[in-house]
Amino acid sequence: MDEFFLIEKTLGEVTAIVSLTFTKEENLSADESKLKWEEFPEPEAAPVKEKKFDEDGNEIVDEEEAPEVQEGEEEEKVVKFKPELYKWTITNGEQKNLLTLFCHSKGINATPDLKEGETYSKHNTQAVTLALDEFCGRIVEETAAKADNLYVQVLFPEQ
User: Fold this and answer.
1) Cα separation of 139 and 17, whole Å?
2) What pLDDT, on a 0 to 100 scale, did the predictor assign at position 68?
3) Model-wide pTM > 0.85
4) What value does the CA radius of gyration of the chain take, rounded to a whole number of Å?
5) Which end of the chain is least crowded, N or C, by CB within 10 Å?
6) CA-CA distance, 72 to 80, in Å (whole number)?
7) Helix intervals (H) in the chain
8) What is the dihedral of CA 129, 134, 140, 143, to 10 degrees?
């Protein structure tokens, strides 16, 4: 993951990737059923302090509880961030494949594509060459058409 972002920082934006592989990579960011969600314990309720009243029935306010506010000044209240109010995925220690990382970083602009190596040739060495030729042709065409973020996965049978 860090290597991908280091490449983008050093060389520039990665707009196309070709993966020549024997095993299919799954895009885990697109399927929410495979994601693990963070669960937070229920917060404990703050103890309720009893109100004190004087002989006339007026509430007695402790000086510790009520901070003084100068006239003309309004107290700015800083809202404390509460992570339990949001949905969080558990990502610490979870591995991501290159397809998931690429699609996650490019968002809806990513275009994943799966091709079978046998559609190019029955021989893997020739299929690799033809797959790379087609991939480079698509990059040139899509760059001219201002489309980018292409991820092509060519799946070869094990021999």
Assistant:
1) 10
2) 56
3) no
4) 29
5) C
6) 25
7) 2-11, 98-106, 124-144
8) -120
